[in-house]
Amino acid sequence: MSSVLTDLFPYPIVQAPMAGGVSVPHLAQAVSEAGGLGFLAGGYKTADGMYQEIKQLRGLTTKPFGVNLFMPQPEHVDPSAVQVYAHQLAGEASWYDTELGDPDSGRDDGYDAKLAVLLDNPVPVVSFHFGVPGREVIDSLRRAGTLTLVTATTVEEALAVERAGADAVIAQGVEAGGHQGTHRDVPEHDGAGIGLLSLVAQVRESVGIPIVAAGGVMRGSQIAALLAAGAGAAQLGTAFLTTPESGASAVHKQALTNPLYTRTELTRAFSGRPARGLVNRFMREHGPYAPAAYPEVHHLTSPLRKKAASAGDAQGMALWAGQGHRMAREMPAGRLVEVLVEEIDRARTALSSEGEYR
């Protein structure tokens, strides 16, 4: 991994920026203090809300951290498809005694205002999801002293990240929990994602910038394998979701290792964009009919998800999780970083010893 990044965090562990209240300042603090790179999630917050979290985190630690932004989405949604889906969800609204959300509540997630905050109050690292910012944005952040990372799910997307001038690419495998960071949402490509180890190897042969590998990573041995394949660090989300510092609800945390939830799937049911979560009633009943309409569907289902969460009803919540969710461990985030580093060292030692006998 390039020294410009390893100078920021000594261990090759990045805590994924999980939107929706999971990646709170105390979680980012714990990870950064332990030698990894903690992240705040700017997605679904106002610009001021994001700024307040940055201020809070700066009051908790002097260690480097990152902030993630969602790229604005192009307007290519069929309004009639959204209305049909809203009609299908009417029963859910009645069940949870709430109104459906307004699908036209905004498409850009306050991107320009958030970017202005990050240029006026620079942070060490900014990452981008759902697309590639223009070179002028990356250059502006670089002049402010900020390193930039951009998610890619294919070699072609990784090449676009490199052309834009980003400092590193986050190679996101199909195993990842939450939203796939595809640059363009193409329904015909649903289910065609690439596994992380294959993706890292392909991207390593195609770009010259450092790679942060993301997707279903739960153990240090996996991180060691990804480092051997050409990554410079690994980004973990689900692994940190069960820590006490995480802002995830108790229901969500418990569901990760609950035998009732045997698998994950990619679904558009909750947001209109492919996202991996534990298969529950809502996903089974509505996933097959959800349109490719992000963020309209996200806005539409927001009141339903909030009501389900407040009622402790896991069957109506978006239980985002990577494929390795059953391997989640309940321990403080800082201790988890330490354990992962110990596992990386053991895996490397074992590999080295094996090589001596050949």
| Main sheet attributes: strand count, strand direction, barrel closure | 8 strands, parallel
Separation of the first and last Cα atoms: 28 Å
Helix percent reads: 40-55%
What's the overall geometry? globular
How many DSSP helices? 15
Radius of gyration: 20 Å
Strand and helix order: HEHEHEHHHEHEHEEHEHEHHEEHHH
Strands across the major sheet, in which order? Answer: 1-9-8-6-5-4-3-2
Mean pLDDT: 95
Counted beta strands: 11
Strand content: 5-15%
Low-confidence blocks of residues: none
Quickly give the structural class: alpha/beta
Question: Could you describe the 3D structure shown?
Answer:
The structure is a single chain. With 358 residues, this protein is an alpha/beta fold. 41% of the residues lie in helices and 13% in strands. It has 15 helices and eleven strands. It is globular. The mean pLDDT is 95.
Layout: helices, strands, pairs:
Blueprint: H1 3-6, E1 13-15, H2 25-33, E2 38-41, H3 47-60, E3 65-70, H4 79-88, H5 90-95, H6 111-120, E4 125-129, H7 135-143, E5 147-152, H8 155-164, E6 168-172, E7 178-179, H9 196-204, E8 211-214, H10 220-229, E9 233-236, H11 238-241, H12 250-256, E10 264-267, E11 275-278, H13 281-286, H14 296-310, H15 333-356
Parallel strand pairs: 1-9, 2-3, 3-4, 4-5, 5-6, 6-8, 8-9
Antiparallel strand pairs: 7-11, 10-11
Helix pairs in contact: 2-3, 3-6, 10-15
Keywords:
eight-stranded parallel sheet; three-stranded antiparallel sheet; 15 helices; alpha/beta; globular
What would a concise description of this structure say?
This protein is of the alpha/beta class. The protein contains 15 helices and eleven strands.
